[in-house]
């Protein structure tokens, strides 16, 4: 485990220094270095970043004025004691102290050991931090104040806080093009609803690596899958998927229509478009198009008209914080109004491509008022004689209404979903 501790330290040190995206840092480090236990290393990294404010607050209570290097090692120690529930504390502490002793000598190992024992003796103080939500859920002050002041729904607010420190669940579905009874039997205990499955303690990703490589299963969050089910594509319908890369929703829309709908998948960013083309190449009814979703969509030099349009718009992506915990430390209200402008522009453009009585589904992987509530209100106000908000129901009947925050019903990413119909 000693090499893991050093790898964890090196990655965290680089992350704090460079303030770059955590996933990119991990990808680069793992490619350049031979890590014996990649899973343990990444679990520690994501866990420490996820709980960084909480860990820092605890350490500062027990130790004053630590050097940056020692603070990182102390975070590894505290995280291992408080969060690695599959490891007995005594075994973990002794192992970590041996690592510190070998690296820095007996004096520093004694210091770390003393702090660890002091932490174990102060359970009451640890428990008291639950009363301070900003510290306990490791939420930067600006983001915490934003949620407190802008999210009125108490259930949604608590779900947002939970997402700040939640170890994410990962979902998948079976590729209908490569279905098999043996696979279905293997994954039956992971079944959630319909064709939605979740990895768990009994079914880990490592046990399905062959099926994933052979494209027999497709990893896709439950909220993302629900979007396609709510749009409910039918055979022979013309459907547009705006901002569609990497293509997971387009593929699911195709499968739900028995691959008999006509789908145009639109993406602006070239690298993402390349990925989109690769992912949809086996679906003859899906046409990828490199185009700007805020501008008219032309097919054979004519404006394209669709029965249904999905707008999964660019957003702050705060609903994916459990998978990308470093996002919460990048929060800035300055960005939100810019996202709102882009989202409304895309919605207005989509409406121009929708036939009378056609359906427009709007989704975002975030929860902010500016992007979810304000963008919808602006769009409706600008088009009050052209479009209306309509009720919808999730296919498992858990929700019925016109504004869905998925995390209040499903244990996946937090998406906002709403549905419009064009008026003739």
Structure in words:
The structure is a single chain. This protein has 424 residues and is α/β, with parallel strands linked by helices. It folds into three domains: 2-136, N-utilizing Substance Protein B Homolog, Chain A (Orthogonal Bundle), CATH 1.10.940.10; 173-219, no CATH class; 223-422, Rossmann fold, CATH 3.40.50. The chain contains 18 helices and 16 strands. It has helices at 2-18, 22-32, 38-50, 52-62, 68-83, 89-104, 106-120, 123-128, 133-136, 141-150, 154-165, 181-186, 209-213, 222-231, 248-256, 270-280, 333-352, 369-382, and strands at residues 171-174, 191-193, 196-198, 217-219, 238-242, 262-267, 286-290, 298-299, 302-303, 306-312, 354-364, 387-389, 392-393, 400-401, 403-405, 416-422. The strands form four sheets. Strands 5, 6, 7, 10, 11, 12, 15 and 16 form an eight-stranded mixed β-sheet that branches. A four-stranded antiparallel β-sheet has the order 2-3-1-4. Helix 15 links the parallel strand 5 and strand 6. Helix 5 packs across helix 7. The longest helix has 20 residues, at 333-352. The termini are far apart.
